[in-house]
Fold this protein.
Amino acid sequence: MTDEPVAREQIETILDAVRWAPTAGNRHLQRFVATTDPGTLRVLRMVSPGMIAKPTAAIAVCVDHALVAEYGFPPENHGPWIDVGTATATLLLAAQAVGLGAGPVSSFSRAAVGVVLDLPEGWVAELVVCLGHPAPDQPRAIKPARLTWRDLTHWVP
Amino acid sequence: MSAPWVLDEDDALELLAYLVTAARTQVDEAAEYGPMRLLTAAHRLAEAMGPRATEATAEALDGPLSQMPLLAVPRGDREQYVEQLDGVCRSVAAHLKTKYAP
């Protein structure tokens, strides 16, 4: 990603798209924390070993566990995390649509990110999506082999 | 005569934060991420040291370590990965030997 700043309007467009992502029972147990502050982004990267890029904006996709408990979900229920996935997929597509590069990061200290982003009690960041203007040179992918849809699909019967 | 500092407090803190949080994330992550995290730390250390290092050390940092892909993991072509990593180890050892035990 380049060091060109991301416009706040672009992030707001992305967040507006994300609220349309499907959630179990339309419950919206996810919350989002956005930042373009260089200092916050620098510290966020320091506590996120999986963050290779130096983004100029980031959105943390959080689960509001107080809300999860309020709905009566048992702690081992996967629903809230599945919704993190649908929200993130929508976020990535929306970022692409407004001309930004985006990359999700899950390798970070939840405890440290909670402090860095001043997360309210009960909110836990599950993914941080880096946003920025795409640089011409990208690091080589972790696993360059591409699987086809046939490799990934099992037909029945 | 003591050697000059090659890291300032900001550089050192950044690396410390990376190492501490990587220790935590590695508890839950795939084992193959372990070497990748260590190499990322080495890349970042080299990047921070480079501008203030001696010419010989800067040259060593710019060698095989800099060629090691950032996201390389042992999965896939393990043999090539190990070979490349051994190359980095040999290069570092050669520099250390020249510098401290000629």
Chain B has one domain: 9-100. Chain B touches chain A at residues 13-14, 17-18, 20-22, 24-25, 29, 33, 37, 40, 69-73, 75-76 (CB under 8 Å). Helices of chain B lie at 9-28, 33-49, 55-61, 64-67, 78-100. The radius of gyration of chain B is 15 Å.
